[in-house]
Amino acid sequence: MGTVLLLGALILGLAPARADDAPEVPAWLAAHVGEGEGQIAPLVLARAQALYRRKVAEGAVRNPCYFAMDATRPNTAEDGGPGRRFYVICEAARTFQAIPAGHGAGRRLEGLADFTNGRDCARNFGNAQDSELTAGGAYVTAEIKDSFKGFYRAAGGGDLPLVRSFVQFEGEGDAANARPRAIGGHAALTLKGLCRRRDPHDPHADDGGYVLQGTLVDYTGGRSNGCTSWSPTDAAALVASVKDAPTTLYLYPEAADIDAVAHGEAGAYWNAACLRAIGSPAYWPQGALAPLIAQYRRDHPPPPPRPIPLCAAP
Q1: CB within 8 Å of 79: residues ≥ 6 apart
Q2: Alpha carbon distance 179, 184 (integer Å)
Q3: Residue range 125-152, pLDDT digits in tens
Q4: What is the pLDDT of residues 180-209, one digit of tens each?
Q5: Structural domains of the chain, count
Q6: Domain that holds residue 126
Q7: Which among 10, 58, 117, 298 is most buried, taking Cβ atoms within 10 Å?
Q8: 191 lies in a domain?
Q9: What range does the record give for the signal peptide (predicted)?
Q10: Considering the domain boundaries, does residue 206 fall inside one?
């Protein structure tokens, strides 16, 4: 079932699972539990269920569906397409869907620290401001903000606006700074090669009468700045599903999980293929990483701002 159909019919009229139920795997969901492509690991599901039930009990959530993400899984499937590691679970309707989602790219601070992530498997995680890292933990979806990014040339000719919706996340624990970090979910779309095109009558024009023009880039299956990025189609359905109906997102792994795997503790979970690829994961907490980022800024002040160039004449 497509994402739009799966979610669109579920936002209204279905009661969420009872808040006092112990986390369990109903028979219909069992086939989706495991470590194969498109499946959810048992530990990730159990924590996502527990978070959802807790938030229902608190009255913070009434959405019939909840989300989970396993950022230890590969970003690329065996067939070369985007790996499916973000999960939409609607227990009342007995539906489950696994879709692609990006992980934080991290950064390289020359001479200080390197916490970059490859495109396929994430090794580094953290919650520091401007780290561009993914922070695991408990989240609830909050308000949705639409942002105009500029215009792009459509395949059939003409200019179209890119308006990207952003779902703010509210986090707990290590993820409690999600709002100041501007961590949330959005479509994996951006504009590259920006220039200024004169159009003084456009409502988006600046004081000089110019609008931004760029090339549309779909980076589904790529990395992000720490946010959760989805394909344009999936993003449209997910944004609609949480509008006026917040829900929970449990994002794995948390700092304690990373530490357990790094120390080889029995029973610790990590996707086997990615663990072979990265060797050992690392968590970069705000307290340790923030001073390094601040030092890097002092050592590398940004150059004076340069105006965006004018677009070439068509």
Answers
A1: none
A2: 8
A3: 999 999 999 999 999 999 999 999 999 9
A4: 999 999 999 999 999 999 999 999 999 999
A5: 1
A6: 3-144+167-184+233-299
A7: 117
A8: no
A9: 1-19
A10: no
